[in-house]
Amino acid sequence: MLQFTAPIILASKSPRRQELLNLMGLDFSVELKDVDESYPNTLNASEIAVYIAEKKAKAFIGDANHIVITADTIVAINGEILGKPKDRTEAQEMLAKLSGNSHEVYTGVSISYNGKTTSFYDKTTVFCRELNNAEIDYYIDNYQPFDKAGSYGIQDWFGLTVVQKLEGSYTNVMGLPTEKLYGYLSGI
User: Fold this and answer.
1) Quick check: is 72 catalytic?
2) Which one-letter DSSP state was computed for residue 178?
3) Residues 167, 53: Cα–Cα separation, whole Å
4) Torsion (CA) 120, 125, 126, 127 in degrees, nearest 10
5) Rounded CA separation 165/157 (Å)
């Protein structure tokens, strides 16, 4: 079990990230700051995830008395970035793209403490079975995936019935690669 002399701030409104830190046995508070999540279009998916996590961390510069954890998750299929859907139509389009295909999930993480920021990312490949239109509509109607990159959550109906297998970290797909995070926090 990790013990820290400095308090931990999770700079994320994601209930999944909060749940994962709780399951890791970490004592933390949640603090949010508005951050522009735009990025240069020259970056690939892993670079985008780290770039946005670092932008979120920069919003906390000057707070050296806390360990600040920021993260951003990106879903990519065939080089196309699937962000959070703006509406039902975009969610349907994203889920149709994932249907019967594999895609990658990248989570970038930044840990800031004592004036230093350390960043890393993790990648998981997710394989999905084919979905029909009725299943896509059922999922959107019942799970409202509008706050999730790629329009789905691995921890709900989609993960239980659509995802066939993963290559990589399950918690990375939830939005926080806890295995790597634990290793980095162990070095503080």
Assistant:
1) yes
2) H
3) 23
4) 180
5) 14
Report pLDDT digits (tens) over 82-100: 999 999 999 999 999 999 9
Please report the beta strands in 8-115, taking only residues with DSSP state E, as ranges in sequence order: 8-10, 28-30, 67-77, 80-82, 102-113
The number of beta carbons lying within 10 Å of the beta carbon of residue 57 is 22
Q: For residue range 44-69, list pLDDT tens digits in order.
A: 999 999 999 999 999 998 777 899 99
Considering only CA atoms, which of 80, 71, 94 is closest in space to residue 16? 71
Catalytic one of 36, 72, 87, 122: 72
Token pair listed for 122: 């993790």
Tell me the C-alpha distance between 60 and 46, whole Å.
Answer: 22
Measured CA distances, 155 to 16, 90, 137, 158, 162 (Å): 9, 21, 18, 7, 11
Pairing of strands 8-10, 28-30: parallel
List all residues 6 or more positions away from 65 whose beta carbon is below 8 Å from its beta carbon: 6, 7
Q: Which helix (H) or strand (E) holds 121?
A: strand 116-128
- CA dist 6 and 173 (Å) reads 28
CB-CB contact of 123 with 106 (8 Å): yes
**Cβ proximity of 59 and 35 under 8 Å:** yes
φ and ψ of 161, to 5 deg: -120, -20
